[in-house]
Each structure stands twice: as structure tokens, then as C-alpha cells.
Design a protein that fits this description.
It contains 18 helices and no strands. By secondary structure, the chain is mostly helical. The N and C termini lie far apart (61 Å).
Length: 430
Amino acid sequence: MPKIKGLRWWIIGLIMLGSTINYLTRSTLSVAAPTILQDLHITEKQYSWILAAFQGAIMLQPICGYVLDVIGLRIGFAIFAVAWSFVNMAHGLARNWPAFAGLRGLLGFNEGSANPAGMKATAEWFPAKERGLAGGIYNIGASAGSMLAPPLVIWAILRYNWQTSFVITGGLGLIWSLLWLLFYRSPEKHPALSDKERDYISSGQEKQLHSDGIRPSVLKIIRQRNFWGIALPRFFADPTWSTLSFWLPLYLSSVRHFNLKQIALYAWLPFLAADFGSVFGGLISMACQRFGKVSLINARRCAFSLGAFMILGVGFVGFTENPMTAIALFSLAGFAHQTLSVTVITMSSDLFKKSEVATVAGMAGTFGNAGVLVFSLLIGALVARIGYTPFFISLGVLDVSGAIILWTMVREPGTALNSKAQRLEVSKAM
């Protein structure tokens, strides 16, 4: 097979496409929600329980990450993608909220594989200095899928019905699964990877994070300070994304009185902004290292903090009467969230061995989705009484709290090693 120049960037493009399909399928319900809730007489509180089933199941993504670490990324991710595609298509058969909840649970479990898979591929295919940008590119898929959902799903509803929208988005997942099996291999086995690029990737990775061939230990991981330093910020930050993905169409319909065509015209804009935020987060980290001469970990923390500061703007949504200003503030929130999200997600590959990355990413994702679960249930239970504004304000407070934790809990690998060496020297001297 002829060698492909810059193959690692083609690989991350394939991952980004899979992430796009993943978020397109999970966003199908939220876009169709105004129609489904009216058609099947589902209340907002019951809708929150449907979302809770998804979030509860996706919290099991450490299982997905462990499976990917053990059986390999190529076969493991293909299995999960085929499963989520068929489950998504089955949504068209649901006729009440318990049926939707059951299907969302199955969908959440299988779609929980996307983040661990993306981070594992990034850790394997990129040197440390490029991982932030690579992570940002593959995370474009999250916002791209969510951005494509409003026009595609609403077109399917207006042209056919809401059931068809699930069949279309699920079918796209099956097509991508075939592409994945055809074109993905690990760097060690890919016939189109040149020796020069393979050496470049390997030489730019941290030696202490190379795979030791040992299966990841969950108990070992949870005893590490750095795991909690990236897991807790995910808990506080991820509710922003779920608010945009799952509640924005309902908010625009019930509060701003948008019809389906208006939702199709405007609900994708925050996710377009998020696309730029995904790349911006990686570029900020690189710029901090190059021009600010700060370490890799501190560069990641600076990018996260900038995103947390920008997201405070979403708190003003409830105080503006102009719906376009509200859309602009939601777009700022999407940009800011992806700026910080790609940063903290990438840190699993900066702090842990390659053989642990998918497991760590999955475990940290569990905390992120736990935050989403709690936040969604609170919205479902209280929005009818207190409205959306208090929840929008709290998003900024939560993200700033995540930034504080990231700065105080995470230790750079070199610092941790030096501290350990100093303790050994002291014990020997005594």
C-alpha cells in the first residue's frame, strides 16, 4: 500500500466523523422533542426521566473504555457504533415515555464509547505537542453532529414524520461503521503509515506514559490525585453541553415561542460556534506553550480557565428580551464550553499511560455525565416553577468551580516523580 503523508490527520478526521454521527444520533430526540411530546402527550418531567435514562447509562462508559483497551480500538469501536445505530433506529417504534427511556438507556451505554475511543486514538497517533489540537479536531464532531441535527431532523419531520428522522440518523451510523473497519489500524499495524511519521509520533510522546502491556486497574486509577483533578471539573462543566443539546429546542419553543422552522434556522448556531471553540482550545494550549513558555499541563489549565470565564455570559440569557441576543449568548456558551471541554478531556492522555487512556477517559466521562444527570433532573423538576434563568446563571458558576479544582488538584507528572524521589531520599537518609 502506498504511504499517505500526514496519515495521523486523516485518522483524526475519521474519528471526528464518527463523533459527528454519535452526536447526531443522540441529538435527534432533543430536536424532535417538541413534536414527540405533543404527539405522545409526554410531559417535561417525563422527558427529563427519558434524558436521565440516557445519562445514567452513559455513566457506564468506563466499561466501554476498558473494553476498548482490552480488545482493541478498531473492533471494539465498530461493535459499539453498530449497536448505537440500530438502537437509534428503534426509537421510531416507541409509543410512550417508558419505551423511550429504555431505548435511551441502551443508546447511552453504546454511545459512551465515543469519548474513550477518541482519546485512545489521540494518545496513540499524536505526539504530546499536537494532542491538544488533535483532540480539538475530533471534538468538532460533538458540535458538528449537534449542529446538523436541527436542519436534518426537522426536514425529516416536515417531509415524512419524526420516526423517519431516527431511521435516517441511525443509518448514517451503519455507513460510518463500515468506513471505520475498512480504514482504521493502529500506528504499529497501519500499512499506509510511513516510517518517518511513525518515528515522529513515537519520539514526541512521553516515555513514562508508554504502554507497559498491563491491563488498566480501576482501583489504581481512582487512587491517583490527577484522576480526580480531571474528573471533578468534568462533573461541573458538562451540564452546559447537555443544556444546549437536550433543552435548547424546548426552551426556544416554550419560552421564545419559536416554531419548527425557526428552531431549524437558529438552534444549530451554538454548535457552529462550538466547532470553532474545539479548535480554539487546542490552539490556545499550543500558544501558551510556545509564546508563554509554560508547561503542557499549565497550558491546558489556562485554556480551561479562559473558557470558564467566557461561559459566564450565558447567565444573561434570561434577562434579554431579544431572541437573537439570546441565541448569541448561547453561541458564546457553545464556543466557551468546547474551549474548556477539549482541554480537560485531552488531559487524560497527558497524565496517564496509553494502555490506560480509554479507561481513564471513560471514568472521567462518568463524572461528567453524572453532572448532566443531576442537572437535567433538576431542570425537569423545577423549570415549570422557577424557569430557566437560575439554571443558566449556575452554569458559569459551575465551570469556574471546575477551573479552581483543575488548578489545585492536578500535579504535573514530572513534579509527582520528583516529589516521590525526594521522599525516597529522605527515607534513606533517616
